[in-house]
Structures are given as C-alpha cells and as structure tokens.
Amino acid sequence: MQFLPMKTLMAHALKHRYAVPSFCAWNAESMETILQVCQRLKSPVILMAGPGEFELLGPASNAAVARALLAKYKVKAALHLDHGDSPALVKECVKAGFTSVMLDYSTRSFEENTTALKKVCRMFQPKGITVEGEIGAVGQCDSTTVEGSRDCRLTDPDEAAEYARITGVDCLAVSIGNAHGTYVKLPQFDFDRLATIYQKVKIPLVLHGGTGTSDADLQRAIALGIAKVNVATALITAYRESLLNQWNAKQNLWVPIAQGAAIKEMARAVEEWVLRLNANGKA
Predict the structure, then answer these.
(1) Per residue in 113-130, pLDDT tens?
(2) What is d(CA 157, CA 88) in angstroms, rounded to the nearest whole number?
(3) How far is residue 60 CA from its own chain's centroid?
(4) In this predicted model, what pLDDT tens digit does every residue of 169-181 receive, in sequence order?
C-alpha cells in the first residue's frame, strides 16, 4: 500500500458518519503497532508526527520508515505533519513524502494565518497534498503538553468561513472547548458553535485533544462534521505508564523487552480509539 491524501479518508468518513483516527507515531514500533491494529480492525488511519516527534526521527527518516512498514500491510493510511510550525518544515515534510500537512499559525493574526495557509495550499494542493489549518486556538490542559498554545480561543464561525474561503484549506481544526493533553475533568464542548462552523465552511473538521472525551460527545461531534480526531496522549500515557510500572518494580530492565511490553499496552489504546470513532470495518 501507499499513503493516500488525507482528504480522501476524511471524505469517506463524513459520508459514512465516523471519524478517522489520527495517531501520534514517533518511531518504527509505534507505527507498526498502529498499522497492525488497523489492518486487523479494517480501519483507515492517519499516522501523524510533528516537531515534538521529529527530535527522535526527522521528517525524512520518519517518512522512510513509515513507507517501508506500510508496504507490509493492507491499510488505507495517510502520513500527516501535525502542528507544523514553519513553511520550511511543511516543505521538508512534503519532500520527504508526507501526504498531508498542517501549518499551525492559530496564535498569529488572522491576516498572517490566512496569508501563510493560502501559500501552502497553492503550492502543495496541486501535488495532491491535503492541507489542514486552524482558526481559534486549541489550548493545553497542562504544562507538560508540547502541542497547541498556552492560551485557548474558541473558533468564531464567521471567521472560520472567511478563513476557508480565502485559503481554500482542505480541513479545519476547531476550538470548541477541546484541549491538548490530559483533561482533569470532562471537557464541555460547544456543539452549537460546532454545528454553525460546519454549516458555514462545508469542509471536514478536525478535533484535536481527543483523549479524555466521552463517547457521547465524540458521537455528537462526528454527527456535526468532525471527520478526524487526533489521539496522542492516550497512546503516550499507556506506553509511559507501562515502562514506569515495569521499572519501578525492577522488571524488564532490559530496554527492548520493556518496550515490547509497553507497545502491547499502546496497541490496546489504539484498538479502543478505532472502535470509539466507529472506524472499524470502514477500510
């Protein structure tokens, strides 16, 4: 299999009322585990990485490893740059083979955000690359989260409509009460705002900060235009807690064995999220 444009996966999700899981994938083990689970469950999937993951595997290495692994599986998948922080990084990822990119200028002025995203769309959409933007600002739940902004600003529906019109962006990340990281309590989503945004922009919407949301809220969000849900904290937490439990108990001190046990816990989180988003059996 080869990586597909992300908009192809999202279009199918919108039509059939589910969301494509977009999982943080930072190394070969995490990528292969995600692909194995999604093949078994017949689920489409998005492998995503960004500045926080590129410290381990840069864009070229990340894409090369992902392509080599995908060749082993029959999975409809996209390779996505999450929270790209510069046009230079976007270009680097496209050159490496990413089929989807996000340039996150959500904390900048409306003019700067639209100008930059319009350039990215004009440059890469003709090459089949899906472009994601963000209006409003999806904040952070805690001080350790590396993605998103320190401040949260809800998406204004009229501003979102103008943003989509000017840029021609393929999908839009929205701020409706969601946040990156670990929620200390259930988030309160503004569903009226979400419904109005989708009514005005008519393009697939993206929910960042999926971990910690309720099943009822996820299903309602999907019904109102969410076609992609980003899941990172759930995977990282399962992996990290397994390692900590093993090492605190002085078990599996040989790192490869410990990582092997941790990746099995991560696989359970991947399966849980595929099922929660109704993505099983959709590929």
Answers:
(1) 999 999 999 999 999 999
(2) 29
(3) 19
(4) 999 999 998 775 5
Catalytic site residue 151? no
Residues 6+ apart with CB under 8 A from 203: 164, 169, 170, 171, 172
- The pTM of this model reads 0.92
On the question of pLDDT at 167 being above 60, the answer is yes
Range(s) of the domain holding residue 118: 6-276
- Of the listed 82, 85, 104, 158, which one is catalytic? 82
Residue 189, in any domain of the structure: yes
Q: What CATH number did the domain enclosing 41 receive?
A: 3.20.20.70
Both tokens assigned to 4: 């597909």
pLDDT per residue over 256-280, tens digit each? 999 999 999 999 999 999 999 999 9
Distance (Å) of CA 80 to CA 4, 11, 18, 181, 187: 10, 16, 19, 19, 26
Query: How many independent structural domains does the chain possess?
Result: 1
